[in-house]
Amino acid sequence: MNDEFESSLYSRGQNPTLTILRKKLAALDGAEDALLFSSGISAISVPILSLLKSGDHIIAVDNLYSWTIKLFKDFLPKFGITTTFIDGTVFENFGQAATPQTRLIYLESPNTFCYELQDIRKVTDFAKSRGIITMIDNSYCSPLYQQPISMGVDLVAQSATKYIGGHSDVVAGVLTGSKAVLKKSLITSS
Question: For position 100, which CATH number holds?
Answer without folding.
Answer: 3.40.640.10
